[in-house]
Amino acid sequence: MPPSAQETPIDNGVTAPMSMSTLPQAGHQWQISLQGKVITITGANQGIGLGLAEVCLANAAVKVYSLDISDPGPEFAAMQKQYPNKLAYLHTDVTSEESVAKALDAVVETEGRFDGMIANAGMTRHQPALDFTMAQVEQLFKLNVFGAWNCATAAAKKFIKLKTKGAIVFTASMTSYRPNRAAPSAPYGATKAAVRNMTHTLAMEWAEHGIRVNSISPGFVKTALTYYVEKSPDWDTKMKYYGGMPRLALPQELGGAYVYLLSDTATYTTGIDIPIAGIVGAW
Question: Looking at 188, 217, 238, 258, which residue is catalytic?
């Protein structure tokens, strides 16, 4: 007799039950698109987060919310004009569980759905390890690790309540793999290594709910915080001898990977990190 719909044969001839709850439904959208999806991005009032918002909107997201503690600036306002009624801002402190939960409640109350979270908010500080104070180290961990944790767990709780097979994408860093020679920061690299490791375990724990958890590890990206990198007097020499793309990435150049991981095309992609570092050789 053929196996039932709830069983699948394995190599030794024994059958094992197979849960159908996380499988795509009939008529699943296989095009890489965010059509109809509501996405939240922490720290999206500027920098990488705003660039990711632009790429999500360009790929048909119905609404993108920036959850940020700072006030939006002119670049954010310009994008709102480019995408009328599709980009919004909610004042959010990601280091506060209550603040994040309140923001997601507001998103669902307004939109009636919530599909994806990009836990992007973070900060860095580059200086020799022995020059760091414990207060500075704690500040980095509070935002980069505990803030990411708050966002991921709040999103997962909301997905489970809504019975949504949602996606969470962390912004990690190439410094989670190896030192940044150009601008060393041992505490920053440690925070991003924690985020990348957390990705794997949360993906394992939440897979039964159809919730996917992945991360992106950018290299140097052109933002207000990294303007000095290309101005370094030895930049051209590094490019000559280490190889790689001789420039910093635009924030939007990261967006394709995030869109893929948030999309329904990636329903079997979870627990991975995608490095995006065209100048990886210069690290």
Answer: 188
70 flagged as catalytic: no
Q: Which of 173, 185, 215, 217 is catalytic?
A: 173
238 annotated active-site: no
- The question of whether 240 is a catalytic residue gets the answer no
69-118 pLDDT, tens digit each? 999 999 999 999 999 999 999 999 999 999 999 999 999 999 999 999 99
DSSP H or E run through 218: strand 212-218
Residues composing the chain:
283
Q: Are strands 167-171 and 38-42 parallel, antiparallel or unpaired?
A: unpaired
| 150 touches 201 (CB < 8 A) | no
Domains of the chain: 31-282 (3.40.50.720)
**Cα distances (angstroms) measured from residue 273 to each of 53, 57, 92:** 20, 23, 26
Dist. CA 93–CA 50, nearest whole Å? 17
Q: How far apart are CA 113 and CA 282, in angstroms?
A: 42
The β-bridge relationship of strands 7-9 and 15-17 is antiparallel
Residue 129: Cβ-neighbour burial (10 angstroms; 0-12, 13-18, 19+): exposed
Q: How far lies 93's CA from each of 70, 84, 103, 121, 275, in Å?
A: 9, 25, 9, 10, 27
Could you tell me where the DSSP H helices lie in 147-265? 147-162, 186-206, 235-242, 255-262
The amino acid occupying position 207 is A
**Mean pLDDT over residues 123-131, rounded?**
90
